[in-house]
Amino acid sequence: MPPGSVKRADLLHPAEVARLGGLEVTTAGIVEGFLAGEHRSPRRGFSVEFAEHRQYQPGDEPRYVDWKLLGRTDRLYVKQFEEETNLRAMLVLDASASMAWRGSAERLTKLDYAARLLAALSLVLLRQRDAAGLVTFDDAVQQVT
């Protein structure tokens, strides 16, 4: 392997991994996901963050009835909360010939830098229970994982 190139095992040095500890990926909008996570979902659920009331329907759990609101309105309402979900991110890596450029022999290639960046981003996503996939391409899509 040429000097300065990155092996899979050392994409991220332990010190670099430690520096990623305080980072998180957030979304500006609403995310559709399947698993519980840290991003706002368009669905209503029963978590911590109150969203709104809706009228009681047969089959609703009595523990979510807002008894104080019943006392004021003589109608049954249940509390609804924001549901949080996971983010599914597809990361894209350009593996074309132009990514082999390194400037000088002791420097990493653009591909090596990009691989490190995507490894770091993947780690941040996985730590917050999000899903990360990878698409590599040159002239065409080469691999989807």
Short characterization:
The chain has 145 residues and is an alpha+beta fold.
Describe the protein in words.
This protein has 145 residues and is α+β, with helices and mostly antiparallel strands. It folds into two domains: 1-25 and 87-145, no CATH class; 29-86, no CATH class. The protein is 21% helix and 32% strand. It is built from three helices and five strands; from the N terminus they run αβαββαββ. The protein has helices at 14-19, 67-73, 110-127, and strands at residues 36-55, 77-85, 88-94, 131-137, 141-144. A three-stranded mixed sheet has the order 3-4-5, with helices on one face. Strands 1-2 form a two-stranded antiparallel ribbon. The radius of gyration is 23 Å and the shape is elongated. It starts with 13 loop residues before the first helix and ends with a strand.
Topology:
Elements: H1 14-19, E1 36-55, H2 67-73, E2 77-85, E3 88-94, H3 110-127, E4 131-137, E5 141-144
Keywords, separated by commas or semicolons:
single chain, 145 residues, alpha+beta, 2 domains, two-stranded antiparallel sheet, 3 helices, 32% strand, elongated
